[in-house]
């Protein structure tokens, strides 16, 4: 597609954009809206419609400002010990040797535990967050209507949980690290929309990082020379994380809707026609990344895995911190990791492993 039709209209009407330059410029194209037309993504009353990523303009800017505060500046220093504790608790376990499904053992649990602690979710409620997140991931891929029709959907249920959770936090007056601005957020949005967005943060804040960590170990298990290079020079850990994000971008595609008739590379697109930006394809564009399918620790770290422009990921630093922390712990623990068996997820929006058995040798 990249070579023959970098902007391609499918027979069902949606437009797909694949090349690095075109995806990159489309991400900052203000004619392409983030707000789904009615009937797309979720029905009008769904909690998902309030999510930050589906807002535009001033409403988006104000909400983003409120949510991203703890991630910037000194905020990162507060996140680091939470990350370190979770990694130590889950990878410090002496049982982790021999053939281990690392997805079950820790790649899913580390980011889940971190986001729950950062949002003040009690450990005993973490299993509910997991139970809601899988179906939400599937809605984002397959569409809301096909999956749920009129039935209550997991995004609404998760939001309901967070509305109650926020109510308790406000009553107790003790805010967890990512919710220091909660009183202001609730004043500005009301409890319901605030709860919906914190539910979104809980989902977005781990469902992608889980796959970053799984894919990272997958590639290093397949390339012992790179594993050895990292053991010799831990300073390369951030490169390994960036290269995994490029090669196995956890967010593979992003949707936009033109506010008016427009054109991308001369291809005319109607108002409200769905435009799908294929980040995964852009990040493997050989025009941008020579020998693009090769995992290469020496490559520049710049890629589109976290998006670009006004909606660029607010959790980037946290996700990278988690990837590096798990990798450093793994490098310290295991002399070698070898692939035994794996299963990629059946999902075209989120790329990652459902299972990954590695032979871990201390
Ligand atoms: C490897 C991990 C991650 C990847 C690959 C990733 C990827 C992305 C991408 C591509 C976007 C842009 C969406 C768009 O333009 O429509 C985005 C937005 C977002 N991400 Fe992440 N993300 C990751 C981790 C996180 C974490 C850890 C958090 C929070 C703790 C987070 C919170 C968000 C939020 C709130 C947005 C919406 C921003 C906005 O619309 O202004 N993400 N992410």
Automatic annotation (TrEMBL):
Keyword list, A-Z: Heme, Iron, Metal-binding, Monooxygenase, Oxidoreductase
Pfam families membership: p450
Cross-referenced SUPFAM superfamilies, in alphabetical order?
Cytochrome P450
Give the matching Gene3D superfamilies: Cytochrome P450
Q: Which cofactor does it need?
A: heme
Query: InterPro entries attached here?
Result: Cyt_P450, Cyt_P450_B, Cyt_P450_CS, Cyt_P450_sf
Does the entry feature the keyword Heme, yes or no? yes
Q: Which family does it belong to?
A: Belongs to the cytochrome P450 family.
Full protein name = Cytochrome P450
